[in-house]
Amino acid sequence: MFELLVFIIILSILVLSHEFGHFWVAKKSGMRVDEFGFGFPPKLWGKKYGETEYTINLIPFGGFVKIYGEDDPNPEYQGGGRKFASKSKWAQAAVIVAGVAFNFILAWLLFSIGFMIGFPTPLTEDTIGIVENPQVLITNVFNESPAEVADLRIGDAVLALSQGGRRIDVQDPSQVSEFVSNSGVGEIAFRILRDGKEEVVTITPAQGILEGRQAIGISLESIGLVSLPPHIALWEGLKKTGQFIWLTVFGFFGIIKDALVGQAGFETISGPIGIYSLVGQAQTLGFTYLLGFTALISISLGIINLVPFPALDGGRLLFLIIEAVKGSPIKPQVANTLNYVGFGILLLLMVLVSYGDLLKIGVIGS
User: Fold this and answer.
1) pLDDT average per 10 residues of sequence, the chain (366 residues)
2) Are 171 and 204 in contact (CB under 8 A)?
3) What is the pTM (predicted TM-score) of this model?
């Protein structure tokens, strides 16, 4: 139940920040906003304050801002001065991209807050700030590896290794690699820290995972909680936001490339169900991990919304560019039809991705 509450809070923050971007810029541009909705209709609840009705709707995975006359390209009618179409193309574009911009701003703030209170960061010679609780953490577990069979998990901290009369307290990932590769035949006892409790897991290394030596199938990294003063935290948060925007764009185009050559699969994509399961993992690692996870989802939401596809902000921006080039508005019937079709395709994609999520977490069989 607690995980569900955390998931709902995160979803609400992401949706509201995105839609608030549209809302705020529309208001600043002099447009009349008729409705600010969380979720998609049918409407469950609504309350009007001033000229705007604030609503909660049945389908929770999204939200919208309804701007006066947005679906009517003719700026000339009663009250046309406050209509979306009566404003300049630059003002309209600003409203459209504002949601994405606020997603990026939210990520920047979350990363910055994380650095102020102690953000999990890979430790290198260039690490700055106060480092607390440095640990050697498992960052990846290979499929069908001895580590996966033994139920080692991402986020486990490796404290010590022992075999026969040998024992080491782990301070660095290289110690684990060297110990495993030189262990010979037999089990190795891994002392790990998981959810605040120490456990001992025995694993027998295998050949063929890494070339030229035996291994158990994990990736490790030294990670500590790095605290920074506010002015440096804001700068580091901005750098990390830019870094992950680039990585997300690069990864997204990689998925598109794989799809074009028939190599993409739903196992590389997560929908609401998959995100819900990841929220549970992130919140068990700690509050700052949850902040970072929310920031990454906010960046992903922003990037996806920039895709030039009907029903997304990128599709609306594409329509606006087409109108600017051709010098006349797109017929409302054409734009609305494309948006409805696009929305239907997105819903279908969400169903397929959710089915893939259920397969991945083992709720249903393949």
Assistant:
1) 73 88 93 89 90 88 82 58 84 94 96 90 78 86 89 90 89 90 86 89 87 87 89 93 89 68 55 53 69 88 88 89 86 81 75 56 48
2) no
3) 0.77
Comparing CA positions, the residue from 118, 60, 100 lying closest to residue 248 is 100
Residues 6+ apart with CB under 8 A from 10: 279, 290, 294, 297
| 51 half-sphere exposure, CB direction, 13 A CA radius | 12
Rounded CA gap, 306 and 336, in Å? 19
Give the pair of three-digit tokens for residue 56.
């909660």
pLDDT at 1: 63
C-beta of residue 312 within 8 angstroms of C-beta of residue 280: no
Give the residue from 261, 313, 251 showing the smallest Cα distance to 95. 313
Residues in Cβ contact with 24 at an 8 Å cutoff, skipping those fewer than 6 apart: 98, 102
| Collapsed DSSP state (helix, strand, coil) of residue 111 | helix
Q: Which of 142, 230, 153 is nearest to 199 (CA)?
A: 153
Q: How far apart are the first and last CA of the chain?
A: 27
Q: Which CATH superfamily is domain 130-225 in?
A: PDZ domain (2.30.42.10)
Give the per-residue pLDDT at 22.
94
SS (H, E, C) 7-25: HHHHHHHHHHHHHHHHHHH
Per-domain boundaries in the chain: 2-116+274-360, 130-225
